[in-house]
Specification:
The protein is α+β, with helices and mostly antiparallel strands. Helix content is about 45%, strand content about 15%. The longest helix is centred in the first third of the chain and has 16 residues.
Length: about 350
């Protein structure tokens, strides 16, 4: 075992996290769900969602047999919705191609939708005690600082270098589930000690050999992603009001908010009245004023102007598949994106005044 690994294992057993909802189990389904939720999302945000998700979908079979709407509804607010669609699709694959049993073969695990090398490694380590290499964002930060690896970790060349380092550091023995403690230790160290800002270097079990710490350049690493101007987009969302009901449209299965329910949208500055009449066959008048909402995605920033419209007359177009009328209080709990929920809550508060 490398000295790096042995120190990390000793530290994890004493100071690491041991009581997260998905720990203290070897159930690959429970571990898989947690690993997918934790992709690009902090533990504190995941805990509540994870518990509710596992109550509703306690097994692979339960998840596979559910509708996508139901899955997305229980993911609503967690973001990066392709994760939920991939999870659902992979569960159906496991039922169809693996007799409902989560595969143990490392290469086979990676063939499932939404599971890459690092996620597969975490599942294999925690569930099957396999010696596999993880390299998520926390681990990249730990390795970049400890070995003073300059360059943005997302660049192919730098990422390849980090993979090589990660593989060399693996403990070679697996007695007493040392690979579990090591894998969890890497995650815990990055999440609680070697944090992006305000790292607790004095408490780090690896500070004696950390190059960034020796050179007092911990805050300089990992090298930030090269900055680009974030594009901005303005849209108007049409909020049709009919009594206490609003109209929602189901978004296409892929793309932003894929498969979720949302309000119809048009480009800002278009003539809303003519669009409403020609596209939806609805005669309506402007109603409650709501503020502009801004929502930041990975690659752009979206500014939403909610345009509330009181329906005076409508035709059968609003009964087409992919459209539904639903009470505001029920819509809040539907499979909708977080910004849509904010708008509905604003609307509900305005109506209660």
């Amino acid at each position: 075992m490398t000295d790096f690994a042995s120190r990390l294992i000793v530290w994890q057993k004493q100071y690491g996290r041991h009581n997260l909802p998905w720990q203290n189990t070897t159930d690959p389904y429970a571990i898989w769900v947690s690993e997918i939720m934790l992709q690009q999302t902090q533990v504190s945000a995941v805990i509540g969602y994870y518990s509710k998700f596992m109550v509703r979908f306690p097994t692979i079979a339960a998840l596979a047999s559910a509708t996508q709407d139901d899955v997305l509804q229980h993911w609503s607010g967690l973001g990066y919705y392709s994760r939920a669609r991939n999870l659902h699709n992979a569960a159906q694959t496991i039922m169809d191609e693996h007799s409902g049993q989560f595969p143990q073969d490392f290469d086979t695990i990676q063939t499932l939708s939404g599971i890459g090398r690092s996620t597969a490694a975490a599942i294999a380590s925690f569930s099957f005690n396999q010696v596999q290499t993880i390299l998520d964002g926390n681990v990249k930060r730990v390795l970049a600082r400890h070995f003073f690896v300059e360059g943005w970790p997302g660049a192919p060349k730098i990422e390849k270098e980090l993979w090589v380092l990660a593989e060399k550091l693996l403990p070679k023995q697996t007695t007493n589930k040392s690979i579990v403690a090591y894998t969890q230790g890497l995650m815990d160290l990055g999440a609680t000690i070697c944090t992006r800002s305000n790292p607790k270097c004095s408490k780090c079990p690896l500070n004696g050999t950390c190059e960034a710490y020796k050179q007092q350049r911990v805050h300089a690493l990992p090298t930030p992603k090269p900055r680009k101007v974030v594009p901005e987009k303005n849209i108007t969302m049409l909020i049709f009001l009919r009594g206490n009901q609003v109209m929602l449209e189901k978004r296409p299965p892929t793309g932003i908010w894929g498969g979720l329910w949302s309000f119809p949208e048009v480009e800002t500055n278009h003539q809303v009245e003519s669009i409403v009449l020609n596209q939806f066959g609805i005669i309506a008048k402007a109603s409650i004023t709501l503020p502009i909402l801004s929502h930041t995605f990975t690659h752009f920033k979206l500014h939403i102007q909610p345009q509330t419209l009181e329906v005076l007359k409508l035709d059968t177009k609003v009964s087409e598949p992919g459209k539904m009328w639903i009470a505001v209080e029920d819509a809040i709990d539907a499979a909708i994106p977080a910004p849509i929920r904010k708008i509905l809550n604003l609307l509900q508060n305005k109506n209660s005044i």
